[in-house]
Amino acid sequence: QCSAAPAQTYDYIVIGSGAGGIPIADRLSEAGNSVLLLEKGPPSSGRWNGTMKPSWLQGTNLTRFDVPGLFNQIWVDSGGVACDDTGVMAGCVLGGGIAVNSALWWKPPSRDWDVNFPKGWQSADMKASVDKVFQRIPGTTNPSTDGKLYLQQGFDRVSKGLDAAGFKQVIPNDHNEEKNLTYGHATFFIEHAERHGPLRSYLETAMARPKFTLWTNTMVKRVVRTGGHATGVELECKNSAGKSGTVNVTPGTGRVIVSAGTFGSAKVLFRSGIGPTDLLNVVKGSSDGATMIAQDQWINLPVGYNLNDHVGTDIQISHPDIVFYDFYGAWSNPIKADTDAYLKNRTGILTQVAPNLGPIIWTQVKGSDGIQRSIQWQARIEGRNKSKSHPPHHLTKTPFETTVLTYIDAMTITQYLGCGTTSRGRLDITSQLNTRVVTAPYLRNSSDKDAVIAGLDYMRTVLSGVSGMSWITPTSGQTTTAFVNSIPATPASRGSNHWTGSATIGEADGRTGGNAVVDLDTKVYGMDNLFVVDASIFPGITTGNPSAAIIAVAERAAERILALKAPSI
Ligand SMILES: Cc1cc2nc3c(=O)[nH]c(=O)nc-3n(C[C@H](O)[C@H](O)[C@H](O)COP(=O)(O)OP(=O)(O)OC[C@H]3O[C@@H](n4cnc5c(N)ncnc54)[C@H](O)[C@@H]3O)c2cc1C
Fold first, then answer.
1. Model-wide pTM > 0.90
2. What does the entry list as the binding residues for FAD (predicted)?
3. The domain that contains 528 carries what CATH number?
4. Would you put residue 387 in left (φ > 0), alpha (ψ -120 to 50) or beta?
5. N or C end of the chain: which has fewer CB within 10 A?
6. What is the CATH number of the domain that holds 173?
7. Are 468 and 496 in contact (CB under 8 A)?
């Protein structure tokens, strides 16, 4: 049932419960503040009263979000889970992306900070924050409680080729600086064979404190502000639950933290009259117009610019030894021995993240502009047997699936071009108040494109050394350049779901021509108590999947925000 927000005020209101939101809410609460965490989506993990599950999980406290072998379900049935207002895949449930993602978990190498971030956020500044994250969420390469890894034939065959080419196998998070010519097992934030991460660490400590409050199914429409001072947020209840009305921060000293994700935070800012004038005019012309903050109060900042994502390029190989496991079938028609092993002992293939990720490989390529670029290669076994009853239309949301359907012995390896890229895009907002990619950030200059091609050329040589393998794509007669050119530079074809950058952190105040939306304390320029803490503040992309880095940023931001004096009133 939807209900009106009570009149109580909070020292901090945090908007969004994703990788950024949960950790910062916990740290602010740990410091003794009253904290309200607002999430527009429903509960996800069974731990927090989530209910979405296949029949074989009925009667347990587990949901689809908890069991690693079901993580693929996001690509089959994303209704009520994926955001419906972003135009790209993102999780809109309790936990955001860290409830729906593949739980890949990487300690960032120093260059992720040093190449991308401003002063105060370099690797030396971030070390303590990264350490805190990995103390609370160590991650594992062996999710099954019996310590075994299942169906590793793909990993084994490919790693032989890598060894022959001189690559070194490492335990990735013990050797996080070694990101060139290395490989290892996929590392996940899984514990006791269940999704762990912020939902099982930061959120648990926060929820145990009396002054911490969580409202799910509660969306923030806008930040209510008087000039540069936020007084509260306006709410809309969702899914016939949650709260509506306005909730205020503690008068004078209270603060609002926007952690709604790269698309969600931009939207909250636009609707609060913060952003480029062209987009604020779109909001003004929308259903928001009549109640939007007056134009003379608008703050002109480059929200939505500097959009980034890993550039994804898929290659596919096949090998007679590779074993495909039907993780999609695990939802509706599971193998009883596998569900039994999972439910009784937390062992077996369903403890592994679908569709059996690994090896993960790292290389580096210097672009023609002299900038070193990091590449992460992510292998998965998602070949489909056409004789099984899972029609391809189930997969329409997956960008890379279509060509692999007939191969059950296929391994798809995605090349992620990351840290060091210089192409950037832009997101905007429509008159229906949906955010969307208006300029895709992929391969917008020759240095990024050349790096993708050079990286692929090299990997083609390396993998051709794997005995018994055959190429599916690129075909052996195709040049790498022709192959790369054949894949559109669009989110549908290149997207990696690792969006960053719409509210960039930096010293160059965006109100006066700079590129930054928030200052070095993550405070929005022109505001005295409004902050952004999530993937949107990243100036550039990480080497690997970004969630650990986002949580480290939340740790650092908490430290800086707590050290700031309240504005004088
Ligand atoms: C399918 C998929 C797979 C991925 N795989 C991996 C992986 O394996 N490893 C990895 O490290 N990263 C992965 N990622 C990326 C990672 O999950 C994201 O980068 C990360 O979650 C982003 O964190 P965030 O805090 O910026 O935003 P999010 O985690 O997206 O959180 C934002 C939250 O804010 C809520 N929200 C939005 N607007 C409002 C509003 N107005 N009011 C209230 N609440 C609001 C949303 O519902 C959401 O819960 C994946 C992402 C996806 C989508």
1. yes
2. 93, 220
3. 3.50.50.60
4. alpha
5. N
6. 3.30.410.10
7. no
